[in-house]
Design goal:
Blueprint (H helix, E strand, L loop, with lengths): L5 E5 L2 E13 L6 E9 L2 E5 L3 H10 L2
Antiparallel strand pairs: 1-2, 2-3, 3-4
Length: 62
């Protein structure tokens, strides 16, 4: 895991906040980051950072 996590709102219910785990994949040519979390029973969300956010994470997470 790359960090403690992130908080994301559910797109269909913006007033609800959900914790998401942040992951860093290793063993690939360039590091890949993504966040994943379960919004409700069997409804999962996956988010990939923008290039600028990815650069920010790479500068701070080893």
């Amino acid at each position: 895991m790359a960090g403690d996590g992130a908080v994301q709102w559910r797109p269909t219910v913006p007033t609800q906040r959900h914790s998401m785990s942040v992951y860093k994949l290793s063993g690939v040519d360039s590091s890949a980051f993504f966040a994943a979390g379960e919004f409700s029973n069997a409804v999962w969300g996956f988010y990939e950072p923008t290039d600028s956010t990815r650069d920010f994470l790479l500068a701070r997470i080893k």
